[in-house]
Amino acid sequence: MSEDLWVFGYGSLMWRPGFEFLEKRPARLNGAHRALCVISHFHRGTPERPGLVLGLDRGGSCRGIAFRVAGSLREQTIQYLREREQVTSVYLEKYRLVDLLDGGRSRVSAVCYLVDRGHAQYAGALTPEEQLTYVKRGHGKSGSNPDYVLATVEALHALDIRDRSLEWLAERLKSERPFTPRDAE
Length: 185
Known about the structure:
Elements: E1 5-9, H1 12-15, E2 23-40, E3 51-69, H2 74-85, E4 91-100, E5 107-115, H3 128-137, E6 139-140, E7 143-144, H4 145-158, H5 164-176
Antiparallel strand pairs: 1-3, 2-3, 2-4, 4-5, 6-7
């Protein structure tokens, strides 16, 4: 039987993992930070109207969620993650040590998807205003780019994690959204 697999989630994997897991725990990855630095032509945009999604970019640290997957589902889960995360090969699949932040504060090796700075879709130098422009217009196979940012900020708040740049974007997105009767419920 295969060893259990740990997966580190820092963006949409936190609120929509899409795979079976035995447990999820707050975690921190050192050496990379969460950044809205990947042009999306598939999940949250199209080649004609690209969106912008998160990547793990080098430097700093990132708090997120570590998911433990049963060893019997290891290969199936890795295949699913590759199909989801590697549509355009903008991420590098790496195993990194992550600190589990509850209980005994142990450290596990987890699969992580780090942005490839040499990839054409890397957009680490965008200003906040440029990020907002991409996010506002993006819509792809997995839905709207504004919904992605807002759901990620909500998931971060649930974990008591502050991300000022994403919060800035979320505030602007909320203030520009048209009112719908559904909002009054």
